[in-house]
Amino acid sequence: MFKAELENVGLVQDSLKTISDLISEGLFQLKEDGIHLIAADPAMVALVDFKLEEDVFAGYDLDEETKVGLNLENFYSILRRANSGDTLTFEVKEDESKFYITMEDSSTRDFSLPILNLSEDDIPSTDQLDFDVTADLETSVLESAIKDAMVVGDSVTVSSDGDSLTIEAEGDQSNVKFNIQEGSEGLMEIEGSQCKSMFSLDYLNSITGAKKLSDTLQLRLGNDFPMRLNFEVPEKARLSFVLAPRIEED
Q: In order of start, what are the domains of the chain with their CATH numbers?
């Protein structure tokens, strides 16, 4: 019914590591153009939109489009056992009860996961989100700012005046403020209007694990509004996160 061979082990390992740090279960959509995953964490704070392009696979056979629910933590636990020289094979057979993973190099190792009956009904759509600011920056810049903020507190305010990006956190005894202007090393481009939102540092710290996929990212921001972070490996994979804001109570 479905069989795909992948030689780029690191691509799927790095992607699933970041995803499984946030989300425990997900429904994979097996389509003609590749493998898609849209899933949200139980608290509906973070949503992930992931795609592995069909062209990244050495072989890709699909009888008909289908959906496969998997425990993402267990899936990653298996994937991390793969070596860089392995060829991974993903397979769904006619009974559709298990998802099979084969790792092959000098030896062959076979794993399987039960296919879960998961619903998409609770996953919110993000297609209609209208952001105020779009910024293209180096992933290491965001990661460094997040690490600095974690020294101070558990939440961070991300803001922009349309020409620069500011990331700041306040704690009981200390605070930190990071600002980078357009054209500076690390911030390639930014455009939009003034806005500001607050976010959980735990979630952002997990999301920056996607740095292994891409040296650059696109950040999209609004005023007391979700933030979208897009990581892309051209013609191979796309990993996007939408993070809900923390709303301060008066």
A: 2-114 (3.70.10.10), 133-221 (3.70.10.10)
The 10 Å Cβ neighbour count of residue 113 is 17
Nearest in space to 3 (alpha carbons), one of 119, 97, 94: 94
Following CA atoms 53, 73, 5, 51 in sequence, which dihedral angle do they give, to the nearest 10 degrees? 0
Range list of β-strands (E), the chain? 2-6, 25-31, 34-40, 46-53, 59-62, 66-71, 87-92, 98-104, 108-114, 133-138, 155-160, 164-170, 175-181, 187-192, 195-200, 216-221, 227-233, 237-243
According to DSSP H, which parts of 169-244 are helical?
201-207
CB 203 within 8 A of CB 158: no
Q: Please, how many CA atoms are within 13 Å of residue 109, restricted to the half-sphere of its CB?
A: 13
Per-residue model confidence as pLDDT tens for the chain (250 residues):
899 999 999 999 999 999 999 999 999 999 999 999 999 998 899 999 999 999 999 999 999 999 999 999 999 999 999 999 999 999 999 888 999 999 999 899 999 999 999 887 777 777 788 999 999 999 999 999 999 999 999 999 999 999 999 999 998 889 999 999 998 989 999 999 999 999 999 999 999 999 999 999 999 999 999 999 999 999 999 999 999 998 765 4
Alpha helices in 83-210 (DSSP H): 139-152, 201-207
How far apart are alpha carbons 159 and 178 in whole angstroms? 10
